[in-house]
Amino acid sequence: MNILVVNDDGIESEGLKMLVKACAHFGQVYVSAPKYQQSAQSHAMTLTEYLEIEEVKDIIGALKAIKVTGSPVDCVRAGMSIFDAEFDLIVSGINDGSNLGTDILYSGTVAAAMEGHLYHVPAIAFSAPTLDLPYLYDEVIKLLDEMIESELYNNTALLNINFPKPSFAKPLGTKITKQGRRVYESDLVKSDKPNLYHQSFSIIRYQEEADTDVTAYEEGYVSITPLMIEQTDFKKIKAILKNE
């Protein structure tokens, strides 16, 4: 297989390096990652500025690698354009931090995988609450093996995979889940410097349904959530047409 590995934490991320080594078990790995940290960039792309793209030679397991002064989506587009390869799979991550529920609206990790779908390439996004999970590398290899063997990533935009909270010594298993409702409340906090603020976040808790990614995370399971691009509210269309 030809596998394109991308992320939003940047080319120096330990999660990226771990993912590259895991993917190298299954084919030729190409890397296209941001030069700088690009978390929470969602599906942003660079339109009015130049992208600086440099070759990187020291990523173990990668056949070729580049770093890009742009967003995760820019990195996918750059990799698809620059590398002389037809990609069979795009794998994004491993993100240092979970991407559960409505996190996917902000996640550069998930957006990069979603961009792959726009190029008709199957995609997987990996996220973990911390990269210090002792089982993480072995579990990623195990999951990749199972998903590649079964081609589980076909016929959906992407698979969003999250490892459970770190209080579990290892996952209790794997669950196919739906997107939950992890919503953030934010506040602007003024700094000591004039006109400078930072955002403070706290999670608003919901009563989660049993089959969501958030519940799986809390109960010690790896969640695999198939996602799609389609956002049309078909129920609303039917209601409007019914009332015409």
From TrEMBL:
A divalent metal cation binds at D8, D9, S39, N95. It holds the Pfam family SurE. Keywords: Cytoplasm, Hydrolase, Metal-binding, Nucleotide-binding. One of its GO terms (cellular component) is cytoplasm. InterPro entries: SurE (IPR030048), SurE-like_Pase/nucleotidase (IPR002828), SurE-like_sf (IPR036523). SUPFAM superfamilies: SurE-like. Its main location: cytoplasm. It catalyses: a ribonucleoside 5'-phosphate + H2O = a ribonucleoside + phosphate. Binds 1 divalent metal cation per subunit. It is an enzyme of class 3 (hydrolase). It comes from the Bacteria. It is found in: Cytoplasm. Its EC number is 3.1.3.5. Its cofactor is a divalent metal cation. Transmembrane segments: none annotated. Gene3D superfamilies: Survival protein SurE-like phosphatase/nucleotidase. The keyword Hydrolase applies. Residues 3-185 form the Survival protein SurE-like phosphatase/nucleotidase domain. GO terms for molecular function: 5'-nucleotidase activity; metal ion binding; nucleotide binding. PANTHER family: 5'-NUCLEOTIDASE SURE (PTHR30457), PHOSPHATASE, PUTATIVE (AFU_ORTHOLOGUE AFUA_4G01070)-RELATED (PTHR30457:SF0). Belongs to the SurE nucleotidase family. Nucleotidase that shows phosphatase activity on nucleoside 5'-monophosphates. This is 5'-nucleotidase SurE. The gene is surE.
